[in-house]
Amino acid sequence: METKTDTLIEALYDVPEDGKAEIVNGGLLVMEPTGGLPSRSSGDIYVHLRSYEKETSTGYAFPDNTGFIVNLPNRRSFSPDTSYFVGELQGGKFLEGAPIFAVEVRSESDYGPVAEQKMAAKRADYFAAGTQVVWDVDVLRDQVITSTEQMIRKIPPPTPKTKSPKQNQPSPAGQCPSTIAYHKSNFLNKKTQNLIFLRF
């Protein structure tokens, strides 16, 4: 017998071409198209992740609009702007499980108290599903907030007024960093040197 979740997952496959949606709170959450700067930023990050994939053979880099099926009480899927996944490919089907690394690039509507709460809740969902590192990319401020589950438990969600502490040193190889770092990175003009934070 087909469940409501099964129906929603099938509906994801029927989202119009170039559309994007996630299954949240028992419904299909359709997302707005991406603007110029956010799109270029996520594309640049993907290029470097793809190079990382080729160099290490540790997983798979994915661009925008890839579907990840998860099993959380309030969420059954993610569709990050860029991601890195270490599970098995499912042919043409959505991937099972969360990416180990997820990038969420802010659109113009992703500012203000309500938007900050929604993004903080989504980061919590990522970590609950097994993601180890999440980037909150703000192209308007040329800033990236790198967060991990360990620090989310200790530090409240950041706001635009939060001052930037000094960047910590990367963790030993084989581990994800237990830090939340605020740092500048112009994705359009130089390499994404922040990849030193990834230890898959």
Describe the 3D structure.
With 200 residues, this protein is an alpha+beta fold. It has one domain: tt1808, chain A (Alpha-Beta Complex), CATH 3.90.1570.10. Helix content is 26%, strand content 21%. It has helices spanning 4-13, 36-56, 113-129, 149-152, and strands at residues 21-24, 27-30, 60-62, 68-69, 77-78, 82-85, 95-96, 101-105, 133-138, 143-148, 181-184. The chain has a 6-stranded mixed beta sheet. The protein is globular, with a radius of gyration of 16 Å.
Taking all residues together, what is the mean pLDDT? 76
Separate helix tally? 4
In what order do the strands lie side by side in the largest sheet? Answer: 3-6-8-9-10-11
Counting DSSP E segments of at least 2 residues, the number of strands comes to 11
CATH superfamily: tt1808, chain A
First and last CA, distance: 39 Å
Low-confidence stretches: 152-200
Give the helix level as a range of percent: 25-40%
Oligomer status: single chain
How much of the sequence lies in strands comes to: 15-25%
3D shape: globular
Give a short account of the largest sheet. 6 strands, mixed
Structural category is alpha+beta
| Highest CATH level, the class | Alpha Beta
Query: How many domains comprise the coordinates?
Result: 1
